[in-house]
Amino acid sequence: MKKIKIVLLIIVLLIPLSIASLFVVFPILNNISLSKFERYPLPEETSLIEVKSVVGKLNGNGNSIDFFVGLLIQSELSKDELTLYYEHAQYAGAKVEKRNVLIEVLTVEDRVLHSKYLEHRQMKFNKLETINDLTGYYFVTIYDGGYQAIFDLRGN
Question: Distance (Å, rounded) from C-alpha 6 to C-alpha 83?
Fold first, then answer.
């Protein structure tokens, strides 16, 4: 009888712990996908200054997960040349290898990245605090979104 009570107690404890663990496991898996998504190509004559990335519900409404990477780069290339480079670069999605990832090159005007893909977030680049002349600095935004949130509460 005592063994049955112990087994029942273990079952009663394991079921809620198993369900609760899903709310830990899925965010960790999405963070791993984000860290892989941060791998980006850089054209020649371009240097990486700072990288910021985020996963969660970044724009619109509904229950989905979006992945966003913001690159602060300094380049000898023009905005048009950078845009052309990134339009032809092969870039894998955050969770699906062959996916249409949206890439945008923006001229830096201040230390805050203003992007249509960051409706619910703000991204500040600390390295820009000490830079007075923003000539040749660009933000490259890389977005992949619309994945099911499942047990990741950041997608709500």
Answer: 64
Provide the token pair at 66: 């979006």
Confirm if 44 and 74 have CB atoms less than 8 A apart. Answer: no
pLDDT in tens, 48-68: 999 999 999 988 888 899 999
Q: How far apart are CA 117 and CA 44, in angstroms?
A: 27
Name the more confident of 156 and 34.
34
Residue 19's pLDDT is 78
Total residue length of the chain: 156
Of residues 134 and 20, more confidence is placed in 134
What whole-number distance in Å separates Cα of residue 156 and Cα of residue 144?
Answer: 17
Rounded Cα distance, 108 and 129, in Å = 12
